[in-house]
Amino acid sequence: MSGGRAVPGAPAAGTPAAAVAAPALHVSGLTVRYREVLALEDVALTLAPGTVTGLIGANGSGKSTLFRSVMGMTRGTGVTWTGDVRVYGRDADAARKDGLVGYVPQSEDVDWAFPVDVRDVVTMGRYGGMGPTRRVRAQDRRAVADALDRVGLADLAHRQIGRLSGGQRKRVFVARAIAQGARLLLLDEPFAGVDKVSEAQITAVLRGLAASGCAVLVSTHDLTSLPDLVDDAILLQRRVILTGPPDVVLRPENLARTFGIDPLAASRGEDGAGAARTPHGSATTEGATR
Ligand SMILES: Nc1ncnc2c1ncn2[C@@H]1O[C@H](COP(=O)(O)OP(=O)(O)OP(=O)(O)O)[C@@H](O)[C@H]1O
Prior knowledge:
4-stranded antiparallel sheet, binds adenosine-5'-triphosphate, 12 strands, 2 domains, 24% strand, ATP-binding, disordered C terminus, ATP hydrolysis activity
């Protein structure tokens, strides 16, 4: 972590020049099995720095498993994991250790009643660079203030985290990743349970991060807003079905390949259950093969 003002997207101190030119994320041959459940099969994808990529798939299609694999969280009893994950050309474990990867999981394992405020949580993003004493330095304070500014939470810095709305809570964890100096951000359903205003704020923050050179991978079921958010989208159904610009990926025939239904038929009410919003109508997000 470099000193001075945090600049998301700037290479971390000591990052080799060759790594700067490398893809932000390169996954190849990733197969993950939870005992008898094959969650991901031979997944390959590449994210360029400075882009936002949407990860689209029905429930159970493997989105969270993909995020967890990049975070090294799919190793353990009953989990079989093969494949290669590189972050800016480096082994993912080493890149995470250096704080290059920020992760906003679907639901944080957080005790919302705990007496910590917004600034305390965002400061946790700086722990990696603080050493064992966790003494907060001037540069940490500046990075935290900058991150809070970016997500529009500066005014709530001293609010206890349990007294935040759902959208504000999401933004706190985005700010924590920004304060960390992450150059690859993984967000698992950041818009779930979030109103349109918060969604627009989070979208603006993510676009801003991409503009400053970060790569962002975001899963969402809100397909209507996808074109405003992403440069590219990946359709996942245990395997990567399709990657491309959102207008191509969101074509009804392509969505039907992943969601297992004709979304236009769904919009006509022939299958309305669990409908997700798309620019073309409604598509159910249920019905994936598990
Ligand atoms: N810890 C686990 N043990 C066993 N099976 C699991 C585990 N976690 C996920 N799975 C299974 O792996 C598959 C992929 O799950 P995953 O959570 O990655 O999907 P997802 O696309 O994130 O779904 P959602 O949109 O519902 O969040 C599913 O069939 C799921 O039931």
